[in-house]
Amino acid sequence: MTIQFVNIAKAQITQTLLSSLLERGGYRVTKLGIEELFGEIKYLDLQSYMALNLPLQLRYLPDLLVANKETNKIRMIEVKFRKRFDETSANDLFGELTNQRQYWPQSYAVIIVAEPAIPDGKFHQDYIRILEPNRTDWLIDQKFSITRRWERLAQIYHVFDDLGETKLLYNADSITPALKQLSQLIEKQ
């Protein structure tokens, strides 16, 4: 079975939204990821994909490379989209990111949800959070409710401020309407 078209579209939309936000904030964004480097794999069934015998480092390559304007500070970013942040998605993300971080331990994961973790969310941080390196276990930390786990994840401008740009904070809420529209598209499927 090939990757479902709707999943490909959602991945591309969320990566494009994040890339646009970061570029508007003054960052340089380069798409990485095996799907970007070798786009044909999106159309392979699982058996054909596995027969390629790709090195795991390549299969788990993060989606984006983000640098500051001077290109002297970088972040590798994996973009993950989920309908909502709940126990099921947190466990799923934990498994996927644990595998990836075996090969790319310094990567960050940007988690974007269609349904805000905060009811009636109005701001980007209700839809987007960042899981920093070495914090993968926060996703499944049962000491905290699922809402509290979401709140513990970093807000986007906290992670990117140290790259030297400040415009991101002011542009971030410009993508909230797009995330709301993406949520409506998902509900129609």
Written account of the structure:
There is one protein chain. This protein has 189 residues and is α+β, with helices and mostly antiparallel strands. It has one domain (5-187): Trna Endonuclease, Chain: A, domain 1. Helices cover 42% and strands 14% of the residues. It contains nine helices and five strands, in the order H-E-H-H-H-E-E-H-E-E-H-H-H-H. Strands 1-2-3-4-5 form a five-stranded mixed β-sheet, with helices on both faces. The mean pLDDT is 83.
Mean pLDDT: 83
The number of distinct β-strands equals 5
Give the percentage of residues in beta strands.
5-15%
Tell me the number of helical segments per DSSP (H or I, 4 or more residues long): 9
**Number of structural units classed as domains:** 1
CATH architecture: 3-Layer(aba) Sandwich
Tell me about the largest β-sheet. 5 strands, mixed
Gross morphology is globular
Multimerization state: single chain
Q: Which structural class best describes the helix and strand composition?
A: alpha+beta
Residue ranges: pLDDT <50 for 5 or more in a row?
Answer: none
Order of helices and strands: HEHHHEEHEEHHHH
The portion of residues assigned to helices is: 40-55%
Report the CATH C-level class. Answer: Alpha Beta
Give the spatial strand order of the biggest sheet.
1-2-3-4-5
Give the distance, in angstroms, between the N- and C-terminal Cα atoms: 19 Å
For this structure, the CATH topology is Trna Endonuclease, Chain: A, domain 1
Radius of gyration: 16 Å
